[in-house]
Structures are given as C-alpha cells and as structure tokens.
Hints:
mainly alpha, about 550 residues, 22 helices
Amino acid sequence: MLITVNTAEPNFEKYLKIxxxxxxxxxxxxxxxxxxxxxxxxxxxxxxxMIRHNLKMDLSGIGSDLAIGAFSVQISVIAALLTAEVTPExxxxxxxxxxxxxxxxxxxxxxSKRKKxxxxxxxxxxxxxxxxxVAHLLELHDPSLLGLVVAVAVILSYIGSSITKSLYKESxxxxxxxxxxxxxxxxxxxxxxxxTARDVDDPLSPVVDSIRCAIRNNDEDKFRTGLQKITxxxxxxxxxxxxxxxxxxxxxxxxLEMGLIALEKDSEATKDIVNSIGTIGASASKHGSQAGAIxxxxxxxxxxxxxxxxxxxxxxxxxAESAGDxxxxxxxxxxxxxxEKGLLMFREIGDNAVFSGDTSTMxxxxxxxxxxxxxxxxxxxxxxxxxxxxxxxDIGTKVLRLESNERQDAFKKLMDSFRKMGKIxxxxxxxxVVWAMxxxxxxxxxxxxxxxxxxxxxxxxxxxxxxxxxxSYEKADEMVQQVIISLQEICISSMRSELTVPVGAxxxxxxxxxxxxxxxxxxxxxxxDIAEYxxxxxxxxxxxxxxxxxxxx
Length: 553
C-alpha cells in the first residue's frame, strides 16, 4: 500500500501570497499614476493661469496652452516609439496626435470668440485632452480610472475658467475705472460744444474704442462692463439742465455708433445699448432736461430705423421697453414735447411689430401707452392724451391687416386698453377714445371683419351704458350722444359690407340703451337715420329692427 504526500499545498499558498502582493503593487502603481495625471494637469493649469495673469497676458489662451501641451506629449510618445522601432503602436498614437492637433486648433478658435460658453468649452477641451495625453504617456488605460481622470479634468477646467473669468472682469473694471475716474462734467460739456472734435480731445474716447473692439471681437465681459460703467458715469455727471443736455447729447452719439456696429454683429449687444440709451434718457428727464430726453429718443429712433432696415425683428421689444422708460419719466416730469416724441417712436415700433407679426411687442406698446395715460390722468392740463389715443388707433388700423388668430388677439388687447383708458381719463379724452373706437369699427367693417366689428360695438355699448348709469357724470348726455352716433355709423358701414352679426349687435345695443330715458330720443333719431341708408332690399335693416325690437316713429 502506497501513501502519497501532497507537497504542492505549501507552494500554492505561496503562489497566492505572491499574486496578492503583485496585485497590490499594481493597484498602488495605478493609484499613484492616476494621482500623477491629476496632479500634473492641475499643476499645469494653475501654473499657466498664474503666469499669464502676472504677465498680463490674455487669459483666454489657457485652454489652447493645455491643448498644445497634450499635442507635445503625444509627439514625444511617437518619438519614443520610433526610436525603439515599435511600429505596431505608431498608427494608434499617430491618430491621437492628429486628434490632439485638431482639438488644439478648436480651442484656439473657441477662445477667440470670447463668449462664456466658447471660453468654458476651450478650457474643458484643453484640460481634458492634456490629462488624457499624460495618462496615455503613463500607460494608464483602465477605463474606470481614465473616466475618473477625465471627470476630475472637467471639474478643474470649470474651476479654472471661473477663476480666470473673475480675474479678467476684475482687470476690466480696474481699466475702465482708471480712465473714467478722471472724467468730469466740464470735460464732456466742452467736447460736446465743439462742432468738430478730434478723438484725442474726447475723454471718453479710450473707453468707447475699447467697447467697439469688444463688440467686434464678441468680448461680452468687456463690452457689458464698459457699457455699464459709461452709463453709470454719465448719470452721475448730470447736474443742471443745460449741462445734462450737453452730456446726454455727447454720450448718445457714441452709443448710437456702438449700436450700429452691434447690429452687424450681435443682437444681444444691441439690446444692451438700447437699454443704456433709455436709462440715460430717463435720467436726463429726471434732472429736468427735456431736451436730453428728446436727444435719447432721437438716437433710439435712428438705431431702430437701422434695425428695421436690417430686418432685426428680435430686438423690437427692447426698443419698446427702453422708450417706455424715457416717456414714463418725461410724463411724470410734465415734459410734454418728450412724450410726444416718444409716442411717435411707439407708432414706429407698433407699425413694424404689426408688419412682422410680433404680438409680444404690440402688447408691450399697448401697455406702455396705457401706463402713460394713467400718468397723464394724474396730472393737470396735459395735452398729449389725445396723441396717445390717436397713436393706438393708427396702430389698430394696421392690426386689422394681420392673419386671423394674431389679428383677433392683438385687436382684443387693443380694445382692452381703450376700455381701461376710458375709466381713468377725463371727459374730453374719453370722447377721443370713443371716436378712435368708432374709426376702428368702421375700418373693420370695411375689411369685412365681423368679429372685430362686433367687439368694437360691445366696447362702445359698455362706455355708453356706464355713462348712463353714473348719475354723478355731469356730461353724460354728450358722451351718450357720441356713443350712439358712433354705433350708428358702424351699423351703416356694416350694412354696406353685408355683415349680419354686427348689424344685429347694434340693434341689440340700442334696445338696451333705450331703456334709459336720457338715451331714448337720441336712439330714435339714429334709428331713423339708419333707415335712410338702407340699400336695395331692406334685408339688413330688417335684421337690425328685429334685434332692436322697439317702435320706429
């Protein structure tokens, strides 16, 4: 009988211990390599930031620095492979070299755009490919660890881009503060008084030139910071009426030039410039300068004309808001000439908004004019409420040319504004509202627009009924008379256009209003006048009578 002894067991345990030791060494090596990759990336990133900042170099080039670093690392890898004559891996590394080279070019292109999204993308791209190139150099190919490296690189790049953006903004603010801190109101008044001034004489010239370049180069930070600074300084330098006018005129001339440049490049930049013009114009009015407010409106109108010629529809809303800032302030200060100028601008904006189908801008214009009407109602002896009503009426006639859904929505909002104005305006101005609604009702009937005509009739009926119910209304008779005459004229126009529903609506309105003794005789006169205008067969007149239901004498 043979007895076997298992001598392999101790060797197997030894093998497992050796294997565990080797695995631990590999793990430690991998962790160290990963830490080295992250450390090298962070060191290169933040060292480059410090060097560029201290040497006052362009911080936007950090992303491309990292990309060229990745490119250089890959060249060294390929050089090492060629020296060792290891040809199988050269194809793969050559492809990586081409990729890194193209991404380097991409970072250069993106960083030159100066916009935040491009700037951040340049940082992320440069940092990521640098970390990948270092990981490849150290032969760190484990997918999970490589993913960790890329994730950390993205976080580092975002932190780096945020820091450099902050440093860049800080340097811009200091630059503009150094220049504008020396500017006085006397300097601006003197340069504005000169008919032919050289740029070297203008204390704002360095800032203006810097902002222009920023617009052309899509440098959002420099553009917005410079524009904000020049707007704030202008407001702070305003003192007396004459001085404010001169300062406003001079600064607006610069803003207009900037706006014309911005129209060629960026609509968002144009919006910011329009906002600055509005802010300066409103501030000028607050300082008592009606001429300064008008100067701002003139500059804004010129810029709007250029935007209209270039079919820049997306910025119309900003023009309405900024013009509203000036006109509201002017109305509060009783600067009636400035208000009248602003209403002309609202008409231009409103007409163009109708032409382009921009309902949001149409609504903005309506709201602005309603607000101005409220301010006018709180003041005494204002002359421009009639201009407000006429402006809205003229815009309304353009609204009638829109497509069905847009037309009905815009017309409804316009009529709502008229109704609200009728409740806050004086008797004289409410008559203007009645006449404006009459004109729109007749225009709508001539265009064979039954819904819009009927809506006008409903609004007029409400005005008349409200006047009849208000016993304290001293001039109710005149108001009711004008409402009845307006309804009569709309009814006649609707009969000629063969609009059944509006004709019946007038008959119904007369039937309701005739219940009030003050209106009965006037309505009878209108009914007889309508009878004189019936044409051919009396079909539509019969529809009117059917809805009216009263006796005709």
